[in-house]
Automatic annotation (TrEMBL):
Protein name according to UniProt: Alpha-glucosidase
CDD domains xrefs: AmyAc_SI_OligoGlu_DGase
Protein's UniProt keywords contain Hydrolase: yes
Keywords: Hydrolase
SMART domains linked to this entry: Aamy
Stretches that traverse the bilayer: none
Organism field: Streptomyces hirsutus
Keyword Zinc-finger: no
Pfam families xrefs: Alpha-amylase (PF00128)
Domain Glycosyl hydrolase family 13 catalytic: 14-417
Organism superkingdom: Bacteria
């Protein structure tokens, strides 16, 4: 087990710029707003900032539909603002990673405007055009193909019709993407989070997908996720973009559907593909067919899944660790209990269990405050294209509108996109204008100002967890052994590195939970806990609701 590279002891913080801090009163977060708030992040102790897209975009999918890869959308600021942000981040000893969205562009990108202008246009083959579509459905409902009237052909879009898929079979496309990536690295950025990057290699012939339970469309994902040339493309990207660059450069692949075995190949350093991947197994355990089919979580399923990823990547490859991002509802409302008597305790338990796993933890903006899902009432409270399209399609297919709305409230991505809650004042200090998406009313209690002032807050618990990762080698480099795999209340595991061992215990329930204290652990000191005054490990232990504690022995 090697102690390098640096990102094994790093913590990444994801900023969703649109909802982070608005400096000019237009109700939309921007780059100057981020600069004004960097001390909050430096105070937390995070090492890397990952910025969701700030490039020019029609904002059909909130910036994941890019119309110019080498500029900044005026709503977020200018390239000069970006350079100021980058310098300010580096001054604080932090790194900045951009969001690379190259499975698709916006339909307003000049490349696509040329491609759609005629069948014989030199860029026609930069996208996927077919006379007849296959049966694939889009992630955002409906067909994955859109008819272009002018040319009479259909183009592929796995996401919205304003997000046409680039054709990575075309070497011109690949070289254009690599040149753009080098341009950003030459500007000084410290790497990329690569959006749905395992979709760039499609199966030859684009075969139909299986049609399931009455859907109008087939599931094409076996034919476009981790397709036949995916490793070839990522190794070519590494040669063309990252080889010879300083080792400070970080690459993270977002890979829906990726398995442990595939992730071992993607993150094996010898293969020179990516440093780590975002996988989706654990955030699918409380879902049936798709994001809005909400089921209860079984803790034993969660332990089996995360445990398998710990075992699979223990000696080769590396895990990223997350509960939250801009596509997931808030974890304290999902796997915890966001009612006021349990919110802080369950949020800090979830943080402790995740951050003590082997891998690089990612914190999504507001997670460090224990921010919760927001109270969406009616359909037009929602903004997210995925939610709005799903509602329209489900109701048109006969679903009960109230049932669909309740699924949007629980599972919709807008839950993660309500503005960052800075203080108890108007609009939580996010904007002095009209916010693009209403601030969660609970900002009066849940906000950064209150959290920083309260030593027992979620914020300070995250700060202590990050500090522990920076100072205690076993957290980053220790192996992982799951305990009590069949227990439906308690998440328990050990980490061991050289002479140091940690015992991590988390009560994933609102009821007390008895824990058999493993032999030889009695009296072990407490390293971190979410119940103040937690002492050495007693010989018999009952965890309070949502209690977490980490003990150490050497
Ligand atoms: O939200 C999902 C579908 O229900 C996720 O599967 C998500 O769409 C998928 O992981 C890819 O996400 C990324 O690409 C999308 C964008 O909408 C997401 O915000 C981004 O994280 C298209 O660019
Ligand atoms: Ca603004």
């Amino acid at each position: 087990i090697t102690e390098t590279p640096w990102w094994k002891t790093a913590v990444v913080y994801q900023i969703y710029p649109r909802s982070f801090a608005d400096s000019n009163g237009d109700g939309i977060g921007d780059l100057p707003g981020i600069i004004d708030r960097l001390d909050h992040l430096a105070g937390l102790g995070v090492d890397v900032l990952w910025l969701s897209p700030v490039y020019p975009s029609p904002q059909d999918d909130n910036g994941y539909d890019i119309s110019d890869y080498q500029d900044i959308d005026p709503v977020f600021g200018t390239l000069a603002d970006f350079d100021r942000l980058l310098a300010a981040v580096h001054e604080r000893g932090m790194k900045l990673v951009m969001d690379l969205v190259v499975n698709h562009t916006s339909d307003e990108h000049p490349w696509f405007l040329e491609s759609r202008s005629g069948r014989d246009n030199p860029k026609r083959d930069w996208y996927w055009w077919r006379a007849e579509p296959n049966n694939w459905g889009s992630f955002f409902s409906g067909s994955a193909w859109e008819l272009d009237q002018a040319s009479g052909e259909h183009y592929l879009h796995l996401f919205s019709r304003k997000q046409p898929d680039l054709n990575w079979e075309n070497p011109e496309v690949r070289q254009a993407v690599y040149a753009m990536m080098r341009w950003w690295l030459d500007r000084g950025v410290d790497g990329f989070r690569m959006d749905v990057i395992n979709a760039i290699s499609k199966a030859p012939g684009l075969p139909d997908g299986e049609v399931r339970n009455g859907s109008r469309y087939g599931d094409g994902s076996p034919h476009y996720l981790c397709g036949p040339r995916i490793h070839e493309f990522l190794q070519e990207m590494h040669r063309e973009v990252f080889a010879g660059r300083p080792e400070r450069i970080l690459t993270i692949g977002e890979m829906p559907g990726v398995t442990v075995d595939q992730a071992k190949r993607f993150t094996d350093p010898e293969r020179r593909e990516v440093d780590m991947v975002f996988q989706f197994e654990h955030v699918g355990l409380d879902r049936g067919e798709g994001r809005f089919d909400v089921r209860p979580l079984q803790l034993t399923d969660l332990k089996a899944s995360l445990g398998a990823w710990q075992d699979g990547l223990n000696s080769t490859g590396w895990n990223s660790l997350y509960w939250n991002n801009h596509d997931q509802p808030r974890i304290v409302s999902r796997f915890g209990d966001d009612r006021s008597e349990h919110r802080v305790r369950s949020a800090t338990m979830l943080a402790t269990v995740l951050h003590l796993h082997r891998g690089t933890p990612f914190i999504y903006q507001g997670e460090e405050l224990g921010m919760t899902n927001a109270p969406f009432e009616k359909l037009d409270d929602f903004r997210d294209i995925e939610s709005l399209n799903h509602y329209a399609e489900a109701v048109a297919a006969g679903a009960d509108p109230e049932q669909v709305l309740s699924a949007l409230r629980v599972a919709g991505r807008d839950n993660a996109r309500t503005p960052m809650q800075w203080d108890a004042g108007p609009n939580a200090g996010f904007t002095n204008g009209l916010s693009w998406l209403p601030v969660n009313p609970d900002h009066v209690e849940i906000n950064a100002a209150a959290a920083v002032a309260d030593p027992d807050s979620v914020y300070h618990h995250y700060r202590r967890l990050i500090d522990l990762r920076h100072t205690e080698p076993v957290v980053a480099h220790g192996d992982f052994t799951m305990l009590m795999p069949d227990d439906e209340q308690v998440y328990a595991f050990t980490r061991r590195y050289r002479a140091t061992e940690l015992l991590v215990l988390g009560n994933f329930s609102g009821s007390p939970a008895s824990v058999p204290v493993p032999a030889g652990w009695e009296g072990a000191e407490t390293v971190i806990a979410n119940v103040s005054g937690t002492g050495p490990l007693p010989s018999t232990l009952t965890l309070a609701p949502w209690e977490a504690r980490v003990h150490r022995r050497t």
